[in-house]
């Protein structure tokens, strides 16, 4: 039984290492060459993994870009609250890429179905949001609430904000509202 537990940890560690290598390689290449000029073969070569590994962890290059942007924005935050706010900013920046809002929030669900899009979101941005909320509650910074329900409602709020921003609404207004919601949920 002990061997099975350490094998699972080993698999998890390998998974996290592969994901981190892909994100780091992508981030470096996106900065060096730009998103448009970076191909997935270059990313996997720089990360030292296979294309299969890339597509096991990320639905496509856009999902990798989004993860790289959000992970970069949330490195070493001053507080869990700040990590949530930084993650929100990263989401708004990622969704500002021309066509991304339409692709992920309108076309994706219409073509792939809501259920598959929710699965994809849970592996990437949704996972990050759940981890942030959980960490904030464990640190005593947020009220104890059902994390899945809170994450679902905040995620819906982010999606609606992205659509509004794409249509011309103020990004700063949406940032202020998110900060106010996090502050209202705060225990401090």
Supply the number of helical segments: 10
Query: What profile does the largest beta sheet have?
Result: none
Structural class: mainly alpha
Spatial extent as radius of gyration: 17 Å
State the low-pLDDT regions, or none: 1-7
Strand tally is: 0
Q: Averaged pLDDT, please?
A: 82
The SSE order reads: HHHHHHHHHH
- The fraction of residues in strands falls at under 5%
Give the termini distance in whole angstroms.
43 Å
Q: What characteristic shape results from the CA principal axes?
A: globular
Instruction: Please give the share of residues in helix.
Output: over 70%
Descriptive labels:
mainly alpha; 188 residues
Describe the structure.
By secondary structure, the protein is mainly alpha-helical. It has 10 helices and no strands. It starts with a helix and ends with a helix. Mean pLDDT is 82; it is low at 1-7.
Describe the structure concisely for a colleague.
By secondary structure, the chain is an all-alpha fold. The protein is 79% helix and 0% strand.
Task: Set out the fold topology.
Layout: H1 2-33, H2 40-47, H3 51-57, H4 61-73, H5 80-95, H6 100-112, H7 114-123, H8 125-138, H9 147-166, H10 171-185
Helix pairs in contact: 1-2, 1-4, 4-5, 5-8, 5-9, 5-10, 6-7, 7-8, 8-9
């Amino acid at each position: 039984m002990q061997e099975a537990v350490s094998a699972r940890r080993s698999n998890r560690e390998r998974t996290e290492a592969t994901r981190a290598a892909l994100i780091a390689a992508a981030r470096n290449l996106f900065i060096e060459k730009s998103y448009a000029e970076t191909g997935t073969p270059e990313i996997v070569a720089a990360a030292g993994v296979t294309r299969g590994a890339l597509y096991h962890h990320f639905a496509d290059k856009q999902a990798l870009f989004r993860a790289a942007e959000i992970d970069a924005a949330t490195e070493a935050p001053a507080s869990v609250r700040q990590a949530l706010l930084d993650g929100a900013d990263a989401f708004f920046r990622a969704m500002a890429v021309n066509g991304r809002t339409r692709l992920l929030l309108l076309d994706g669900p219409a073509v792939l179905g809501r259920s598959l899009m929710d699965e994809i979101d849970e592996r990437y941005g949704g996972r990050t949001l759940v981890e942030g909320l959980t960490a904030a509650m464990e640190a005593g910074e947020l009220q104890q609430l059902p994390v899945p329900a809170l994450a679902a409602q905040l995620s819906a709020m982010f999606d609606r904000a992205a659509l509004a921003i794409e249509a011309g609404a103020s990004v700063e207004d949406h940032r202020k509202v998110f900060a106010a919601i996090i502050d209202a949920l705060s225990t401090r």
